[in-house]
Design goal:
Elements (H helix, E strand, L loop, with lengths): L20 E7 L5 E6 L3 E8 L4 E8 H10 L1 H7 L8 E3 L7 E2 L3 H11 L5 E2 L11
Parallel strand pairs: 6-7
Antiparallel strand pairs: 1-2, 3-4, 4-5
Helix pairs in contact: 1-2
Length: 131
């Protein structure tokens, strides 16, 4: 979707459908109850969809992000019967690059190496000999 097109959307999580809570109450010091709205904390995220070999851009609640981290994107989409092809933004051939020898590479671990993740090559180091 081009960025120039402005689309008015409901403030709703793309995966879980979580929306605002309109039945909340604000309680004053004198214990007077008045209605207030609790909004859902929505964030735009770009995630790598392993099974589809694509990036997807979703507007998800922060609680849904925790669920995605725990179960995986495909499992959460399947639980809520969501077609992730609707949110695909590229047909890339792999997740983003990670520099070699950094903390990010250490965090990646063996699980992402098994997914054939591309790694930026580092220039070879030349040892200077003292003669």
């Amino acid at each position: 979707m081009p960025r120039a097109v402005l689309e008015m959307r409901e403030r709703k999580c793309d995966l879980t459908g979580k929306r605002r809570n309109g039945k909340a109450m604000a309680v004053s010091k004198s214990m007077r109850h008045t209605h207030r709205v609790q909004k859902v904390n929505l964030q735009w995220v770009k995630l790598w969809w392993e099974e589809g070999h694509k990036f997807v851009r979703l507007r998800v609640a922060t609680k849904t992000m925790r669920t995605i981290h725990k179960k995986g994107l495909q499992a959460v989409a399947k639980d809520y019967d969501i077609n992730l092809h609707r949110f695909a933004i590229s047909a890339g051939d792999g997740p983003p690059l990670v520099p070699v020898g950094t903390e990010a590479e250490a965090e990646v671990g063996e699980s992402l190496k098994a997914t054939k993740m591309r790694v930026k090559p580092q220039p070879p180091t030349v040892a200077l000999s003292t003669v």
